[in-house]
Amino acid sequence: MTVGWHYCNPVDIHFGGEAFGATAALLGGARYALVTYPDPIFEVFAERLTEAAGPAVVVISDVSPNPDCSNLRAQCELLWSLPEPVEV
């Protein structure tokens, strides 16, 4: 049995073992961007999300807790350079 919890205010956030399946269902095959931290555990989470929802159109994995403007600009430029925008 997976133990988890659910919180919504106003963003719907799911925690626990079923979160990856729930996220895949919410994405519903949409073109999505994955924005995450460079820590190894987040690489594992990204792999699990890819298995559940298919690959992201783009993965930005260099997010820092307090990013500076140059880091944010590079990340935004990556998103702007996509041939088709992400849907979510």
Concise overview:
Helix content is 40%, strand content 14%.
Q: How much strand content do the residues show?
A: 5-15%
- Low-confidence blocks of residues: none
Structural class: alpha+beta
Order of helices and strands: EEHEHEH
Number of strands: 4
Count helical runs. 3
Within the largest sheet, what's the order of strands?
A: 1-2
* Straight-line N-to-C gap: 30 Å
Largest sheet: 2 strands, antiparallel
- Shape, per Cα inertia axes: globular
Q: What would the average pLDDT be, to the nearest integer?
A: 86
- What's the alpha carbon Rg, rounded to whole Å? 14 Å
Helix content: 25-40%
Quickly list its features.
88 residues; alpha+beta; 14% strand
Give a written overview of the molecule.
The structure is a single chain. With 88 residues, this protein is of the alpha+beta class. The chain is 40% helix and 14% strand. It has helices spanning 19-27, 40-53, 69-80; strands at residues 6-8, 12-14, 33-35, 58-60. A hairpin with a 3-residue loop joins strand 1 and strand 2 (12-14). Helix 1 crosses helix 2. The protein is globular, with a radius of gyration of 14 Å.
Helix/strand layout:
Elements: E1 6-8, E2 12-14, H1 19-27, E3 33-35, H2 40-53, E4 58-60, H3 69-80
Parallel strand pairs: 3-4
Antiparallel strand pairs: 1-2
